[in-house]
Amino acid sequence: MAAFRVDPAGVVSVIVSSNSNGVALSPDEKKLYILEAGTWDLDPLGAPSNPGPIAPSGDGLAVDCAGDLYASGTIYNAQGQRIGAYPSGSDLTFGGADGKTLFIVGTGTQVQEVQMNLPGLP
Predict the structure, then answer these.
(1) Is 120 helix (H, G, I), strand (E, B) or coil?
(2) What distance in Å separates the CA atoms of residue 109 and residue 45, rounded to the nearest whole number?
(3) Most exposed of 4, 18, 75, 117 (fewest Cβ within 10 Å)?
């Protein structure tokens, strides 16, 4: 698997050509997170640089308004430190009226709803 970038001129480039699954941006859109591949700084045009070590594994990724990462049942802060947990599942997203409901998809048609303290990114 690989992760690609399409620049404003339409040029496609490879960000990483290793195992990757799940992509998200930090709330300020200055960081790119790719599950199992790492973290990158983004310039104002979205060009990645300075690959970093935060690379949780998993199948889905969500980010809350504080920049915390949710992957495979674990919550990490922006520095990559484990700060909490939630029921594991294959894919997840924030929703609900206040954006604080974490919807977690498991095997088959199983969907869990977990109320969190912070809203996710829209």
Answers:
(1) strand
(2) 39
(3) 117
Predicted TM-score of the model (pTM): 0.85
CATH of the domain at 40: 2.120.10.30
Q: Which helix (H) or strand (E) holds 115?
A: strand 111-115
Q: Which residues of 109-120 are buried (b: 16+ CB within 10 A; e: fewer)?
A: eeeeeeebeebb
The reply to whether 59 falls in a domain is yes
Label each residue of 57-104 as H, E or C: CCCCCEEECCCCEEECCEEECCCCCEEEECCCCCEEEEECCCCCEEEE
Tell me the pLDDT tens digit for each residue of 26-82.
Answer: 999 999 998 888 889 999 989 999 988 766 777 788 999 999 999 988 999 888 889
- For residue 44, the enclosing domain spans 3-115
> Degrees (nearest 5) of the Cα angle 95, 80, 4?
70
If one counts the domains in the chain, the total is 1
